[in-house]
Amino acid sequence: MIKSRFAYTLLLCALLPRALWHLLWRGLRERGYYRHVPERFGFYSSAVSQQLIWVHAVSVGETRAAQPLIAALQGKYPGHGILLTHMTPTGRLTGEQLFGAQVTRCYLPYDFPFAVRRFLDHFKPVCGVVLETEIWPNLIHVCRSRNVPLYLANARLSEKSLRRYQRYTEFAATTLNELTSIAAQSVGDAVRLQALGAKNVQVTGNIKFDIAPDPALVDRGLAWRQAYGESRPVVLAASTRDGEEALLIQALRAADIPDLLLVIVPRHPQRFDSVAALLEREAVAYQRRSSEQPIAASTRVLLGDSMGEMPAYYAACDLAIIGGSLLPYGAQNLIEACAVGKPVIIGTHTYNFAEATQLALTAGAALQVEDARAALAAARELLRDAGRIQRMAESARRFANEHQGATARLIDLIEVAGSAAATRIQ
User: Fold this and answer.
1) What is the DSSP letter of 355?
2) Annotated active-site positions, please?
3) pLDDT 10s digits, 193-220
4) Which of 19, 117, 204, 299 could, after both became Cys, cross-link 183 (CB 3.0–4.6 A)?
5) Number of domains composing the chain
6) pLDDT lower than 70: segments of the chain
């Protein structure tokens, strides 16, 4: 049992060969893992010319969620730069697409004390905001010892994660209480964090409700919709995970939806080619978004093999099936679909968005189903009832709008809880 940071660090050292093997193995499928490797150990070459506010967003979803927070920080502290850190190449690429040269980007190092110290020595952030569930004991401890305020923002903790952390309750409590403050997504998340011993928890809401769909991308999606054929039914399978595409293809054959165009957008770009190979093996007539070709009437599946266009995909569909929920991956972000006014169909595996899912179901913006076959059966019934789709679309927009405001509450929390940091920034 891990009872101290020393034991934790020894375990990290023992796992270092595995971490290096992981980089090598992941790099075989996604070459981005072979770039910037020194950064993962705290070695950086980028110059630092101004004081930085540091935001950590591990991967794609967290990077998108950081949009309203970074905009608010830039508005409140215009004299300071933003340092945006990631752990995955897709997260880093998303950061580049969303923010360009407006932020400094790098990988957060592995949680070795020497690497964390190098990171802080190089960038000297005046404060840090870590999104969602990134709890790194050495990072948190070194920030505390150097008086760098560090906030866990948009924090969530599932029942499954709570049970895992409860094996190390004392160590978890010590780590959580070294954070300056914790801003939880929901009351349930706050209760679970407090069950681990966290004392500095407030509920601020989910900042993903504050992400405004890019109007240019929405317009792009509306143009796609016209090109598909306005009378043609379009169902989007958004951010699908490994194994879900096969289930959806099987369900498509039994769906009995005339002229249906199923748009499948895999969550991870390194899987685009493998999903294309699956469609070929299954002899499904498909086209790739990247081909930029008009969609033929005989095409049954459009493979969304592009990054950064999710609002366009939502705007171009009649309704969305949320990936990651048909198999036990915890679901992807259903709020994005609702913000564009699209009815949602979601599976039973929703622990990453448990509260948002329940709120959407209660609001009439979503339907929950058991599996892929049930998802397309539900889509068939909705497509036969234009009035019901319209009501769900209106409920989706209302649901997304009613739960905004978490970013403002988070900014206020950072200012109050980190008044010393605010003074240093100003």
Assistant:
1) H
2) 62
3) 999 999 999 999 999 999 999 999 999 9
4) 204
5) 2
6) 1-3, 415-426
